[in-house]
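Ticket opened by: R.M.
Priority: normal
Category: complex prediction / small molecule

The reporter submitted a protein together with uridine-5'-diphosphate and asked that the result be attached to this ticket for the collaborator who will pick it up next week. Submitted input follows.
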Amino acid sequence: MKYLVTGGAGFIGSNLCRRLLLEGNSVVCLDDLSTGKFSNISELQTDSSFEFVNHDLTKPFFPDSIDGIFNLACPASPVHYQYNPIRTLKMGTLAMYNVLGMAAKFNVPILQASTSEVYGDPEQHPQSESYWGNVNPIGPRACYDEGKRVAESLCIAYKEHSGVSIRIARIFNTYGPFMDVNDGRVVSNFCVQALSKKPLTIYGSGEQTRSFCYIDDLVTGLILLMNSKLEVPVNLGNPDEFTMIELANKIIEISGISSGYVLNELPVDDPQRRCPNIDLARSKLGWSPSVPLSEGLIHTLGWFKERLNE
Ligand code: UDP
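Result attached by the on-call engineer:
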């Protein structure tokens, strides 16, 4: 199969490209390198089944022929998506018309990388796909959250109106190798801070929770979803829930380096609790994560250690 992976030079995208190639597929990796990094995919350039295209998806793209699209193009860390909120909203709107139009033209399935952020600061716990969410439409996270929400609406509209075969993965917090040192998210911040012997920056009280999925588990889920016939949103995440203090302590314990914490202000609209209900993925895809946080953090710390020594 020949897949188009948009955002293919990003953290999740580059891991997905590698796995698709390993499984014998061809990959066209599209990225404008605004947050993705060429170094994430540079070693794939020697593979004749891999092609990199530097393109901004808010402008139309016309590939030769493809058998499926993984649409991952969007800044995803709060620091990055809030840097230029207009551009982030364009990825949820303009770029969506372009990729969905492509899926319609080639009559191929498209998997949309949606997010747990569609649930906002959730009032239901854990979050199941039937929950409509609690999103502030005018807050600092709105450019991402509402962009991803309208992107889901566009997928449904193209399915209903144009018969496009859609998959919607609601991706919860994910971590692992190929995360950027300057990504700004909690796992990368804590790992880089610990390895640099700097205090870990805990926002707010540190009692807020997240559920962290190791990248290899997530990529398995994305491919299973693409190969399924499920045309409804599906949560993909690890249901093991941790407070940020617990996460900090794990990273200190595994790295063996402790330089303490500093408490910073909690960002506006920061969700207090987040944990996926993955019953749907379990029952329809036979998927559940297998890598516990402690094991995933060992690989992730190893990845950041190498980056910091370069
Ligand atoms: N966070 C933190 N320290 C950091 C970065 C983030 O305590 O250096 C907290 C943040 O306030 C949030 C959680 O970690 O409650 C996860 O934040 P992240 O930016 O990784 O992703 P989010 O799930 O909020 O999109």
